Amino acid sequence: MAVDPTKLRETVSTAVWELHSCTHRQLTELGLPIPTEDTGTKSQRLEACLKALPDDDLLQAAQRLLHSPHASARDKERFALEDAVWDAETVIEIPGRARCELADAIDLDELLHRPDRFERALERFWHLDDDPNVGCPVFNTGVVDWARIHDSRFDVDRVPALLAQLERRDDADAWQELAWRLVLEGDLVFPAGFAALPQLVRLAPRSMQARALAGRILERAAGHHACDDLLADCAGTITEFGETLDRHLRSRPADYLVSFRALLAVAQEYHWANAIEGFTDDIYELECPHCAAAMKIAVGRFGCYAQVWDSDEELRRELRPAVAEELTGTGRGMHRTAVRDGQGALADGIAHLFGDAQCPVCASVFNIADEYTHANRPAAFIDRVFFSAQDTGAGASPSRPADGVGTRPYAAPGTKPRRQGP
Ligand SMILES: [Zn+2]
Questions:
Q1: Which residue stretches of the chain have pLDDT < 70?
Q2: What b/e string do you get for 40-72 counting C-beta neighbours within 10 Å, with b at 16 or more?
Q3: Among 68, 287, 338, 417, whose CB has the most other CB atoms within 10 angstroms?
């Protein structure tokens, strides 16, 4: 880093003026251009010395002043000298991953007599929250202890190795192995999945695979994984992932639907994150809230209708899509995001999903999203709403409360019902 010569001269001058108690010999040992002893008073000699000191020698003088036992620069003067010397040194960038590995390797209990006091002092003097360059916590705080976190094969070493490999370079085989080690087919997410989230989210802005895998993990966050503590530790990471996804969606990317579903999982709309398939041919199973008839709601290019089979007879009623301006809550947030990003088919599907259906059996009319949410939404355990307040509007539907929580397990991917009949 370049050093300001004026500032450096000022710093060195302040330190040199403090040398008035030094003997002539001590002053000459400092390598300063001190005039001969019989030239005026000591102050005059120090003044003459500073005048004779060329700019090119200032840095060397600062280094000597720092290390000399005769110089007595303290507090502000010493810090200024140190800053000047350090500014001139070559900066060695340490990548975030290396810092994390170092932090992981250091055992504070072994290194220090009172690690608790050290960590308190560190928090007092080093405000990492304000430092955008710090990608992971210092020392052991919050660092993943991979030795205790297993993947789907009950291994503890492969996931950190794969993550390190993928941070260095993209590799399709490594992504594939990582995916099945973190999330087994269907519903199961393993502790290593949540432990890997921070690194996946760091890769998410530049990696489609990282976005998809982090999304798959979060889509299963409401399942029975016994990792609530690991998930709670990821709150900041999940918020960061939401911001990354929102920026990514605005660019209308090829992986729009996958990223949209991941954003729904970030917002804890797990039942939608696991159900929406892009409305090419989406099917949602419901019961009529009035007569309990089991029906399928179809939304896609083959039509948008409620369907009930009575023996061999198909009963159908067309859906009544919501008017965009009248949408509230999650539906409004989802619809506005899709419209903003030019996703016409998705926006149209959402309008149907958050609109009304008429029961083909009893002819009663009900809101599809309310019924599906009531039946499928898992209990939320972290208060996190990602769609912004102006996007979601307010208020609950007349038929279901706004905080309606599911009474059944949510529909996991791969368990979606299929269209039935001709
Ligand atoms: Zn009915």
A1: 1-2, 93, 95-97, 100, 123-143, 185-187, 379-422
A2: eebeebbbebbeebeeeebbebbebbeebeebe
A3: 338
Q: Kindly state the tokens that stand for 324.
A: 């965009």
* pTM metric for this prediction: 0.61
Could you tell me the distance, in angstroms and rounded to a whole number, from the CA of residue 291 to the centre of ligand 1?
4
What local confidence, expressed as pLDDT, does residue 125 receive?
A: 61
Any idea what DSSP says for residue 365? E
Residue 295: strand pairing partners: 286
285-322 confidence digits (pLDDT tens): 999 999 999 999 999 989 999 999 988 899 999 999 99
Q: Name the residue ranges covered by the structural domains of the chain.
A: 5-88, 95-143, 149-266, 281-392
> How many A from CA of 397 to the centre of ligand 1?
19
Taking the centre of ligand 1 as the mean of its atom positions, its distance from the CA of residue 297, in whole angstroms, is 13
Q: Is residue 160 within 8 Å of residue 104, measured between CB atoms?
A: no
**How far does residue 361's CA lie from ligand 1's centre (Å)?**
5
pLDDT in tens, 127-153: 544 444 444 433 333 467 777 788 888
Using the mean position of ligand 1's atoms as its centre, give its distance from the Cα of residue 364 in Å: 6
Cα–Cα distance, 414 to 417 (Å, whole number): 9
